[in-house]
Each structure stands twice: as structure tokens, then as C-alpha cells.
Design a protein that fits this description.
- With 350 residues, this protein is mainly alpha-helical.
- The chain is built from 16 helices and two strands.
- Helix 5 packs across helix 16 and helix 15 packs antiparallel against helix 16.
- It folds into two domains: 66 residues, no CATH class; 275 residues, Orthogonal Bundle (MetI-like fold), CATH 1.10.3720.10.
Length: 350
């Protein structure tokens, strides 16, 4: 194709845009020898007004920003991936209903948690129409005891687990990214981890107290180690990536690098550890109660399980009901935690 034909081809491509305001009375529609198709073309452009030849392109900043806009949402994608796991969705619904029922059970029960003890006439009565879960060693309604204990244990486990994960993630991010703090946190980790935690808990129980608040704070204070160590090892993998080096060269603040560049890659691991920490906290609370290191005025699942062991041959129902509830909570959080962890992994997003 020669230059003349190239020039006309460009004019043909521009013609539909240019001739929006063209006065067609000045346009020759006769076919040209070099253009046998007989398409409309201007006879003489130098006689046309300028407004017919040119049009100003408007610039809008908001429209320009939307050129690279995407409808992708990370958390929306996480939720869609989680809903694909039907078993995890069902277990999460079961747990929510279980927690809601702990409040409903006290309203529909015949007796209150503060029922006066009567060990002579109502001790260890088997489950019946009057006492749905039977009675305990001092004649109190076991239905009210079990559901109050379930609510208290779930709230304690959730608060302690969130506290452990929060402290562990903060320390793990600083431990892994700030090189000057690596030696300090390593020695602190070795100091706490090389001594059994139960020794620390025993000293705190004897010196400070055995209340639920005190022991809950102590569990947070010593339970962040595993999370911090795991997060620290993961931060090592992402600390010297190209985008983090570029952020440091641009003078980006430390907090922004940690929570915008690195933290999103740790979400799936954090969610999994949180899901496993909740049933683990209930089990640890059971151990502390059994060892006498947790003095609880109100019942908890740990206290009920600890009390039921001694009377299991005589009153097996005192162990069965709390054990079933603890098993449901453990299985629920294991399945939901694994499913949500997979959904949070960016590699599983399309």
C-alpha cells in the first residue's frame, strides 16, 4: 500500500468521528476513481469551519481514575469461597445456634442457677421430666448449670484467644521485621518457653489470685508465644521482597509496611490459629480447674468436667452433657477454621 492510500485510509477511519457536525451540503458524494466504494468524503476541507473539523476532548479526573478500576474485593472473595464449604457453613450455624441457646436455656428452664442446694433429697437425680439434665452433688438443677457454664466458657475462650492472637501477631510482626529487636524477643521467648507454663500459672494463682479475670490475663500473657514465633518466621519470608524494599526506599512508615504489605499474607494462618485456640483455651481452663488453680464461683465447662470425673460411675450424665458440648465446640471450630483459612489464602482466589 502506497502513502496516498495510507493517508486516505486514516481519513476513512476518522471520518465517522469528524462528520458529526459536518455540513453535508458541501460534501461531494460522487465516487472517486481511487475509492470505488462510493463512500462519503469531504471535497475540500479548507472550506469547512474549524468547529466541524475538530472537537475538544474533555478530561474528568474521576473517570481517569476508573481506567484501572476493578470490582474485585478481597473479603467478598473470601466470603464466596467460604460459602462453597457446605460442611463448614453448617457447623458455623450450629455453633451460633448453640451460643444463642445458652441464653434461651436459662429462660425456658424450670430452675435458676442460684437454686438453693439440697443435697439430701435431690442429689444426683437422674434426668427426668422435672430435671432435664438431672441434678448435681448438692441438688441443683444440672440443666441450668450446664448452659450457664457453656456460655461462660465460650466467652472466656473467645476473649482469651483473641487476646493471645492479637499480642502474638503484634510481637511477631515486630520480631520478624525489625532486626534490632530480634535478639531481645528471641531471649524473651527462650526464657518463657523453657519453663513449663503450668509453673507460671501456679505462682500467679498463689501470689495474685485464682479468679477468672486473673487467670485469663495470665493465659494471654503466656499464650502468645506460639503465634508470635509462627508470625515471625513468616515475616522473614516477605520482609525483603521487592515491593517492601521499594516501600522502604520511598520512606513508607513502618506501620504501613507491616499492616499493608505483609499482614494480608498472614491472614489465613492467623485465622487458623484463632480457630484452634478457642477449643484449646477451654481444654486449658479445664486443666487449671482440675488442678485447683482456678477458683470459679460460677460454673464453667472445665469445673463441671473436673467435678464429674470423681462421680462418673455413679452419675455418668454429669460427664456426658459437658463432654458433648465441648466436643461440638472443638469440631466446629476445627472445621470452620480450616475452611476460613483456605478461603483467606489469596492463592485460592480467582
Amino acid at each position: 500500500m502506497n502513502k496516498k492510500h495510507q493517508h486516505k485510509t486514516v481519513q476513512e477511519m476518522e471520518a465517522p468521528v469528524v462528520k458529526m457536525d459536518i455540513d453535508y451540503s458541501q460534501v461531494d458524494t460522487e465516487p472517486d476513481k481511487e475509492r470505488p466504494y462510493g463512500r462519503e468524503y469531504p471535497q475540500s476541507r479548507n472550506r469547512m469551519p474549524e468547529k466541524q473539523l475538530f472537537a475538544f476532548a474533555e478530561y474528568r479526573a474521576q473517570e481517569a481514575e476508573r481506567i484501572g478500576y476493578s470490582n474485585y474485593s478481597y473479603w467478598k472473595s473470601v466470603w464466596q469461597n467460604f460459602l462453597k464449604k457446605k460442611s463448614a457453613v453448617i457447623m458455623s450455624v450450629i455453633f451460633i445456634l448453640l451460643f444463642i441457646f445458652t441464653f434461651v436455656a436459662s429462660a425456658i428452664g424450670k430452675y435458676d442457677i442460684n437454686m438453693a442446694p439440697d443435697p439430701l433429697n435431690r442429689a444426683y437425680i437422674e434426668p427426668n421430666a422435672e430435671y432435664w439434665f438431672g441434678t448435681n452433688a448438692i441438688g441443683q438443677d444440672y440443666w441450668a448449670q450446664v448452659w450457664y457454664a457453656t456460655r461462660a466458657s465460650i466467652l472466656l475462650a473467645v476473649l482469651v484467644s483473641f487476646g493471645q492472637i492479637f499480642v502474638g501477631v503484634i510481637i511477631g510482626l515486630l520480631w520478624g521485621y525489625v532486626r534490632k529487636l530480634d535478639r531481645f524477643f528471641t531471649e524473651l521467648y527462650n526464657l518463657i518457653d523453657n519453663i513449663p507454663t503450668i509453673i507460671y500459672m501456679t505462682l500467679i494463682a498463689l501470689m495474685v489470685g485464682k479468679t477468672m479475670l486473673t487467670m485469663g490475663i495470665a493465659m494471654v500473657g503466656f499464650g502468645w508465644l506460639a503465634t508470635a514465633r509462627n508470625v515471625r518466621n513468616l515475616v522473614f519470608m516477605y520482609r525483603d521482597r521487592e515491593y517492601n524494599l521499594a516501600s522502604r526506599c520511598l520512606g513508607t512508615r513502618l506501620g504501613r509496611i507491616l499492616f499493608r504489605n505483609i499482614f494480608p499474607y498472614l491472614v489465613s494462618v492467623i485465622i487458623l490459629r484463632l480457630a484452634l485456640a478457642i477449643p484449646g483455651t477451654i481444654a486449658y481452663e479445664t486443666t487449671l480447674t482440675y488442678l485447683g488453680l482456678m477458683d470459679i464461683t460460677k460454673p464453667s465447662l472445665g469445673m463441671l468436667l473436673s467435678s464429674a470425673r470423681a462421680v462418673f460411675p455413679r452419675a455418668s450424665y454429669t460427664l456426658v452433657f459437658p463432654a458433648i458440648i465441648v466436643s461440638i465446640i472443638t469440631i466446629t471450630f476445627y472445621l470452620v477454621g480450616n475452611a476460613f483459612s483456605d478461603a483467606c489464602d489469596p492463592r485460592n482466589h480467582v
